[in-house]
């Protein structure tokens, strides 16, 4: 099941807030619907957000072409509106900057030529994500040379990408190779992406999965029920610090304490080459009712103060390896990440 499909004039998104109870799709025929879907987490996961935003810009550009205002200033305004939807996942900015670059190259062309170039670039971004997912899966699966159980946090599967998934892509490939015996999935409070999405995805593929609450991870490690942790990422800085869904840092600390490798699977598009450490990563804070209610039912006092950061930052010292489409990176991360940056420049 794909997180999104494109059919020339419309982006169709799987509404992930309804899973697993309902399989519901959102048809986006204007860029505002795409922006709202990103903001409301109806589409989520760093690579998927980037691809959705790229398609959203195509739709927005077509809306502008049908109007009478200044096309270029309107296009740049849409870029900024889409960038403002989520502050932490760097793929969003990467994809939109890439789209804006294409628009700039065709600025002097007629509008129809520019629109066609934007659509081709958005399709390329989505297709590249599928290819990248496959490479990450192969590189990561090579780390597992004997059957073992793993723990994952949040959802970094097909629902979070355009393709195979990052962390779950590695798990899928290692399972196919006979080197995964079971997956323990943290439920991932407050929005339960592990319970609603990861457990559902793994069950669809008949990969053995055990759901646990976030607070059980340490005891599961203590009981030696898992031998590795693998998660995705929303931003990786030059020194190897990793922003990912809130609760990831706790899992990394626990893994270190129990001598369990902590792997991060992420495409190069998730690396922020402008940021030296995780201290500078903006952390999105979301509304209180995500914590005070579940499924519309209040579970906390009405007036209680709430702190709801959507992400945390895991220091590079706690990361055993970064799994990318360019290979598996080990500490020291800064030289390895800089090398990827140089490779990307060479490919452009």
Automatic annotation (TrEMBL):
Which InterPro entries does this UniProt record tie to the protein? IF-2B-related (IPR000649), IF-M1Pi (IPR005251), IF_2B-like_C (IPR042529), Initiation_fac_2B_a/b/d (IPR011559), M1Pi_N (IPR027363), NagB/RpiA_transferase-like (IPR037171)
Q: Which residues form the active site?
A: 234 (proton donor)
Q: Which UniProt keywords apply?
A: Amino-acid biosynthesis, Isomerase, Methionine biosynthesis
Q: Which residues take part in binding substrate?
A: 44-46, 86, 193, 244-245
- Enzyme class comes to isomerase
One biological process term from GO is: L-methionine salvage from methylthioadenosine
Superkingdom of origin organism: Bacteria
The question of whether Ubl conjugation is a record keyword is answered with no
User: Pfam family of this protein, just one?
Assistant: IF-2B
Q: In which pathway does it act?
A: Amino-acid biosynthesis; L-methionine biosynthesis via salvage pathway; L-methionine from S-methyl-5-thio-alpha-D-ribose 1-phosphate: step 1/6
Q: Which residue numbers mark the site Transition state stabilizer?
A: 154
Question: GO molecular-function annotation terms?
Answer: S-methyl-5-thioribose-1-phosphate isomerase activity
The reaction(s) catalysed by this protein are: 5-(methylsulfanyl)-alpha-D-ribose 1-phosphate = 5-(methylsulfanyl)-D-ribulose 1-phosphate
Q: Might you give the EC number(s) for this enzyme?
A: 5.3.1.23
Asked if the record carries the keyword Amino-acid biosynthesis, the reply is yes
What is this protein for, i.e. what is its function? Answer: Catalyzes the interconversion of methylthioribose-1-phosphate (MTR-1-P) into methylthioribulose-1-phosphate (MTRu-1-P).
Family statement drawn from the similarity comment of this UniProt entry = Belongs to the EIF-2B alpha/beta/delta subunits family. MtnA subfamily.
- Name of the protein described by the UniProt record: Methylthioribose-1-phosphate isomerase
Give the species: Dendrosporobacter quercicolus
Upper taxonomic lineage: Bacteria, Bacillati, Bacillota, Negativicutes, Selenomonadales
């Amino acid at each position: 099941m794909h997180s999104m499909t494109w059919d020339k004039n419309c982006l169709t998104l799987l509404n992930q807030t309804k899973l697993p109870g309902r399989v519901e799709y959102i048809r986006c025929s204007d860029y505002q619907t795409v922006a709202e879907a990103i903001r409301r987490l109806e589409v989520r996961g760093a690579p998927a957000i980037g691809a959705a935003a790229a398609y959203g810009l195509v739709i927005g550009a077509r809306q502008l072409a049908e109007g009478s205002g200044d096309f270029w200033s309107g296009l740049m305004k849409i870029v900024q509106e889409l960038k403002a939807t989520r502050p932490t996942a760097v793929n969003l900015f990467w994809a939109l900057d890439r789209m804006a670059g294409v628009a700039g190259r065709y600025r002097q062309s007629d509008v129809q030529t520019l629109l066609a170039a934007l659509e081709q670039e958005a399709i390329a971004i989505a297709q590249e994500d599928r290819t990248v997912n496959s490479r990450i899966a192969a590189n990561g699966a090579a780390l597992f040379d004997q059957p073992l159980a793993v723990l994952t946090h949040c959802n970094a599967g097909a629902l979070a990408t355009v393709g195979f998934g990052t962390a779950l892509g590695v798990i899928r490939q290692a399972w196919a190779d006979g080197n995964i015996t079971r997956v323990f999935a943290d439920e991932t409070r407050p929005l339960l992406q592990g319970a609603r999405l990861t457990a559902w995805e793994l069950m669809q593929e008949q990969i053995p999965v055990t759901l646990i609450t976030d607070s059980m991870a340490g005891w599961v490690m203590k009981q030696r029920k898992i031998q590795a942790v693998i998660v995705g990422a929303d931003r990786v800085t030059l020194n190897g610090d990793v922003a990912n869904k809130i609760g990831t840092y706790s899992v990394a600390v626990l893994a270190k304490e129990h001598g369990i490798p902590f792997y991060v699977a992420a495409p190069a598009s998730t690396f922020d080459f402008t940021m030296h450490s995780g201290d500078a990563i903006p952390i999105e804070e979301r509304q209180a009712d995500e914590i005070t209610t579940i499924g519309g039912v209040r579970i906390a006092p009405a007036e209680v103060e709430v702190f709801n950061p959507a992400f945390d930052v895991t220091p590079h010292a706690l990361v055993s390896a970064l799994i990318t489409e360019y290979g598996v990176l080990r500490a020291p991360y800064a030289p390895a990440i800089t090398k990827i940056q140089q490779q990307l420049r060479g490919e452009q």
